Amino acid sequence: MNSTKLEKLRKLAEKIDFNDSRLNQHYREMEETSANIKPYAGYSTLLRAPQHTSLKELEIALIGVPFDFGVTNRPGARFGPQQIREVSSMAEGPMHHESKIIPSQLCRFGDYGDVNFESTYNLDQGIEEIEAYYHKVIDAGVIPISAGGDHSITYPILKAVGRENSVGLIHIDAHADTGGPFNGSKFHHGGPFRNAALAGVLDPERTIQIGIRGRAEPHWDFSYDSGMRVVHIEEFYQMGLEKVIEEARQVVGDGPTYISFDVDGIDPAFTPGTGTPEVGGLTPREVQQLIRGMRGLNLVGGDVVEVAPPYDPSGNTALVAATMMWEILCVIADSVANKSN
Ligand SMILES: [Mn+2]
Q: What's the pLDDT at 134?
C-alpha cells in the first residue's frame, strides 16, 4: 500500500468519538453510572434495561408474565420471561441500526419485573390478577411492553390498556386467537381477541391479523364476522411486505394501537420453542420489518408471547422474541417522544 494511504488509515484509527454524538453521550453516561456491567455478569433483565421497582420514574415498563394456564396443548411459556431476560444479554448497544432510534434517550424505560401470581393453580384467578396488575400500570400513566406467557395474557392486559379508549391491533401470529369457549373455558390462548372485542376494549374494525395459517382456521369465524382484517400467510407473500405494512397502517389509523406478536407467527425453523408451532410461517426478518413499519403510529403497548423454552434447547426462540421486543420498544419509544414534543 502506498504510504500516504496507510498514513491516512492510521490517522483514522486514532479517532475515539463516534460519528453520532448521541452515542458519545450514551457511553459517557454509562461510565459515570454502574450501568457498565459486563453482559455475562450481574443480573439479567429484559433488554438489559435497568431494574425498577417503582412505576413513578417510568414511561415504558417491560414486564414479564410467567403464565401458561391458558394453553390448549403444550405448556412451558411460564418460563418465557426468564429466558428472554437471559438471552437479552447478547444484545449490545443502545441504538437501532436502521432507524437510528436510541430508546434510552427518548424516554424512561425499565424492567419492572414479573406479575407475581398469588394463585398458581387457577386460570380464571390468574386472568383477574393480570388485569389488576395492569390497571396499576395504566393508572401510573405507564406504557406496558410485556413478555409472555401464553397468549391468554393479552386479554386481561387489553382490559387495562383499552379501558378508556378501545385499541386498534397489529397482531402477528399463526392463529387469529378469536375462538370461543374451549374445553370448559373462554380464557384459553386461542381466544384473547374475541374476549377483548366483546369486552369493548378492542375495536375489531381497527384490527389486522398477519401470518394466519393452519388447521385451526374454522375457529376464526369471529375475526371475519366482526370485521377484522385477516392476512393469511399466502396473501402476505402475494401482497408483499410493503403493501401489508401500508394496509396495516390504514386499518389501525391514528387511534391508540397495540402490537401483539406471537412467536408462532414465525416459522418453527426459527422459533421451535413454542406450544403450538405451525410450519410455513414468516421469517424473523419479515417480522422485524413489519414492526419497523409501525413507526409513527399512536402506540400504547405491546407484547411478545408464547416462548416455551422447554421445546428449544438452543434458546434461539427466546433470542428472536427478545429481538422483536427491542423492535417494539424502539417504535413505542419513538411514539412516546413524539407525543411529548
Ligand atoms: Mn397467539
A: 98
Q: Provide the domain count of the chain.
A: 1
The grid coordinates listed for 253 are 389509523
- Cα separation, 145 vs 234, in Å, equals 29
Q: Is residue 179 part of a domain?
A: yes
Ligand 1: centre distance to CA 213 (Å): 12
Residue 301 one-letter amino acid: G
| CA–CA distance, 325 with 191 (Å, rounded to integer) | 22
Give the per-residue pLDDT at 34.
63
Backbone conformation region of residue 42, classed left if phi is above 0, alpha if psi is from -120 to 50, else beta: left
* Model pLDDT, residue 29: 87
Alpha helix locations (H) across the chain?
3-12, 21-32, 80-88, 103-106, 123-139, 154-161, 192-198, 221-226, 233-239, 241-252, 284-292, 316-340
Q: What is the CATH classification number for the domain harbouring 214?
A: 3.40.800.10
Regions of the chain with pLDDT less than 50: none
Model pTM above 0.90: yes
Give pLDDT, residue 30: 85
Ligand 1 centroid to residue 176 C-alpha, Å: 7
d(CA 192, CA 157): 10
Cα(218) to ligand 1 centroid in Å equals 15
**What pLDDT does 64 receive?**
98
Distance of CA 101 from the midpoint of ligand 1 (Å):
28
Domain boundaries, position 250: 41-340
Q: What is the pLDDT of residue 136?
A: 98
Q: Is 79 a member of any domain?
A: yes
Instruction: Answer for the pair 93, 120: CB distance below 8 angstroms, yes or no.
Output: no
Answer whether residue 4 is part of any domain: no
Give pLDDT, residue 38.
Answer: 84
